[in-house]
Structure formats: structure tokens, C-alpha cells
TrEMBL record:
Naturally occurring in which organism (per UniProt): Dongia mobilis
Annotated protein name in UniProt: SCP-2 sterol transfer family protein
Residue span, SCP2 domain: 45-98
Domain of life: Bacteria
A Pfam family this chain is assigned to: SCP2
Length: 100
């Protein structure tokens, strides 16, 4: 799945949930997806919009699986498929939104 398609899927899911309240940066190989959850609906862009509370590093295939509910976020973290820098609580809130 291309980064643009991942961003669209994130926007769709984000619009169905409550305000996250934090900023999250996804490092997806050579791309950045920035989720500004301080707004509702959140601003989700394919560029760096500044500092984030949490940075998640994941490859595109695993992000797609996560969005589709085919990859358990805890298992992904434990097996190194997903890396988190910053607030783990924010990452857990975000992954709970994906699984809805």
C-alpha cells in the first residue's frame, strides 16, 4: 500500500474516533506521516509538521496490517515490528483507535 493510501485510511479511522489529544509521527521507511491529534478531526499529513509526543517506526506492510486489524500492536512491539519513542501511553491509545 502506498503512503497516500495509508494516510487516507488513517484519516478515515481517525474521523470515526474521539480526539486523540497528542501529536504522533510515523516513520514509514523513507516517508513521514504526521498525526496532529490535538485537532478534531485530526490533521494527518505526509510530511513532518514539527515535534511529536510519540514517534512510531514501522514498515509500510506492517502499518497496513495494523490498520486492517491483521497485526496485534502489542505483538508487533514485542517482536520489533513496531518501535516507539516517547509516550507509550499515546501509542497505546492510537493503536486502540486502529483496532476499532
Amino acid at each position: 500500500m502506498e503512503t497516500d493510501a495509508l494516510i487516507e485510511e488513517m484519516r478515515r479511522r481517525a474521523g470515526q474516533n474521539v480526539k486523540l489529544g497528542y501529536k504522533v509521527k510515523f516513520l514509514v521507511e523513507d516517508d513521514i506521516i504526521f498525526w496532529d491529534g490535538t485537532e478534531h478531526p485530526p490533521v494527518i499529513e505526509g510530511k513532518d509538521l514539527g515535534d511529536a509526543n510519540t514517534t512510531i517506526t514501522i514498515n509500510p506492510a506492517n502499518l497496513q496490517k495494523l490498520l486492517q486489524g491483521q497485526l496485534d500492536p502489542t505483538l508487533a512491539y514485542m517482536t520489533g515490528k513496531l518501535k516507539v519513542e516517547g509516550s507509550m501511553g499515546v501509542a497505546l491509545k492510537l493503536t486502540a483507535m486502529f483496532s476499532d
